[in-house]
Design brief:
The chain is of the alpha/beta class. It has a single domain, classed as Metallo-beta-lactamase, Chain A, CATH 3.60.15.10. It has four helices and 14 strands. Strands 6-5-4-3-2-1-14 form a seven-stranded mixed β-sheet. Strand 9 and strand 10 form a beta hairpin. Helix 3 runs parallel beside helix 4. The longest helix is centred in the last third of the chain and has 18 residues. The mean pLDDT is 97.
């Protein structure tokens, strides 16, 4: 199984010729849906879902997401299915389990929206914009490292609670080069503390997972 980092909060996972894409938002400029078989969308914010991209995608595309997002995808030709915390399903040869219900609190005047995280093949956990602890072993965590709802201490505490074997940065598209350097340093320090592999993949960089 190969994981490729795309802009900001999007990743693409490939296995046995099948392609699963997570959170193809408006920050993702690459044609990330080309050849995709299925898409997982954690929540309705525009940096995680681009409705126009999905409208232009293949009608054979399977899309799994929360109710809030599904309500915005009524004109999308692909098959849209609502999932909730505790659901399990299979798509494009990937086994997926859903964890979590709500986005992390952001601004006091902004309502909290639905957010569902996904565990793929008992290997990769993508929490979306939340610090959901799935309560199961997580070999590979896609850890949010930036955003108005997140501070450094929360990110470190999340890594120490989940204790993944490896973690790759996500939600890092708001940083300039200086900020990305800080992310690299934070992950390196915590990697050494936990004797694990925590790092940031550059956009377009891939990692092969067992």
């Amino acid at each position: 199984m190969e994981l490729t980092k795309y802009d900001h909060a999007c990743v693409r996972v490939e296995k046995n010729g099948k392609v699963l894409v997570i959170d193809p938002g408006t920050f993702t400029e690459s044609p990330v849906l080309d050849g995709a078989d299925a898409v997982l969308i954690t929540h309705e914010h525009w940096d995680h879902v681009d409705v126009d991209k999905l409208k232009a995608a293949s009608p054979a595309l399977e899309i799994y997401t929360c109710e809030g997002v599904a309500a915005e995808l009524t004109d999308v030709p692909g098959k849209v299915q609502v999932v909730r915390h505790g659901d399990a399903f299979e798509t494009a040869g990937f086994r997926v389990r859903a964890f979590g219900e709500w986005h992390a609190k952001n601004h006091p005047d902004v309502p909290v929206v639905q957010n569902v995280g996904f565990l793929i093949d008992d290997e990769i956990f993508y929490p979306g914009d939340a610090l959901t602890v799935p309560g199961v072993e997580v070999p590979t965590l896609l850890v949010p490292t930036g955003g108005p709802w997140l501070k450094l201490g929360d990110m470190v505490e999340y890594l120490r609670t989940v204790r993944p074997g490896r973690a790759f940065s996500t939600h890092d598209g708001l940083y300039n080069d200086v900020g990305l350097g800080l992310v690299d340093n934070w992950l390196k320090a915590e990697s050494e503390t936990q004797s694990a592999d925590f790092r940031r993949l550059a956009v377009g960089e891939s990692a092969t997972l067992s």
